[in-house]
């Protein structure tokens, strides 16, 4: 009989901060750009160049630390982590080992198993490395240093998670907090949020941890969930066969749904850390700390409470809308323009969610403006367009952020409220469908639905449904 195993998981989450410039130089942090165009002597590691710390990086790190219940290290330092890869131009990375800026925090998550607090061991600031691009055709690797020196915070959790569900809930909670703070857009597909999964298994009831592996290259929540299941099974299989798990870094291949070893896992001493000689220690005064705290925006919990009091929308809608900062921003801005919170909520909860799912998009990817959504709601509300046309127009708003008023005008989509024209069409429909008319007179209420459908079809979907129903009943 197979033994029962427990999975033990801790995460290292790297988050690119939303500063305009890099951590130690004035180069742009913008995503994209031709290779090696967002660079200078500092971020390409030229001899004699000196780093200058970006104050905004420290403030974002403090804000995230406070929002995740951490203790802020008011006297902290940078350290030099020495390692040799082509994407690391100085042959070292400026990071924090001995005195990280935030320590001993935690966030509460909720899964089907209930509520649980996931501990945060520390958050430290560091610079990102460049990007290696492997050209298989030429059999060479080339380096793009645009990302080198982009500011990161690394959030190191305690090994408190026991399943993929808990990991995803923790990541979603972190992403939501950081997006609300405006500290990062946390786009996994662009690499501005990356998670490395440290995972081990042990027999249920054991107190000692098993040997852990670290998995990299995880750029979506689905990939993370698959990687956790895959690695858990791989380790259990090794143990069942009497083999031992090797402590190593593994790379997850989502297409093959399997991982492979990259390198044996290094420990801190392998990096020969020492205090960074080119940067002075950071002293965070009580006043500075209070200033950052005072600038903290309205976070999700407070926003949810306010929505319940201020807007006439169901609690479920408020929960979903506030769980994504982008949705909350669109909801508030649109409501301010049209003054119809319930209708704004309906468009976000039904049509927006449907299109996001169909296009495999996240709420952060929404591109339409609150102004255009407000115009669409007003058009539908005034009866200028009917509900089926409104849905058709919304698809265009969602895809291309078109102006609904102009679009309706140009495409001739306004609802036909001309009773004379409708009456003539309906008379013809009744004449053409004697069987449905007979069914209706024999008490089959559904028959009228068919006749309404035929009328709408004849009017190219632009008739006023209420008026169609009224005239049909009158003529029948």
Automatic annotation (TrEMBL):
Allows the formation of correctly charged Asn-tRNA(Asn) or Gln-tRNA(Gln) through the transamidation of misacylated Asp-tRNA(Asn) or Glu-tRNA(Gln) in organisms which lack either or both of asparaginyl-tRNA or glutaminyl-tRNA synthetases. The reaction takes place in the presence of glutamine and ATP through an activated phospho-Asp-tRNA(Asn) or phospho-Glu-tRNA(Gln). It comes from Roseburia yibonii. Residues 329-476 form the Asn/Gln amidotransferase domain. Its EC number is 6.3.5.-. Belongs to the GatB/GatE family. GatB subfamily. This is Aspartyl/glutamyl-tRNA(Asn/Gln) amidotransferase subunit B. HAMAP family: GatB (MF_00121). The gene is gatB. It catalyses: L-aspartyl-tRNA(Asn) + L-glutamine + ATP + H2O = L-asparaginyl-tRNA(Asn) + L-glutamate + ADP + phosphate + 2 H(+); L-glutamyl-tRNA(Gln) + L-glutamine + ATP + H2O = L-glutaminyl-tRNA(Gln) + L-glutamate + ADP + phosphate + H(+). PANTHER family: GLUTAMYL-TRNA GLN AMIDOTRANSFERASE SUBUNIT B MITOCHONDRIAL AND PROKARYOTIC PET112-RELATED (PTHR11659), GLUTAMYL-TRNA(GLN) AMIDOTRANSFERASE SUBUNIT B, MITOCHONDRIAL (PTHR11659:SF0). It is an enzyme of class 6 (ligase). NCBIfam families: gatB (TIGR00133), PRK05477.1-2 (NF004012), PRK05477.1-4 (NF004014). InterPro entries: Asn/Gln-tRNA_amidoTrfase_suB/E (IPR017959), Asn/Gln-tRNA_Trfase_suB/E_cat (IPR006075), Asn/Gln_amidotransferase (IPR018027), Asn/Gln_tRNA_amidoTrase-B-like (IPR003789), GatB (IPR004413), GatB_C_1 (IPR042114), GatB_Yqey_C_2 (IPR023168), Gln-tRNA_amidoTrfase_suB_CS (IPR017958).
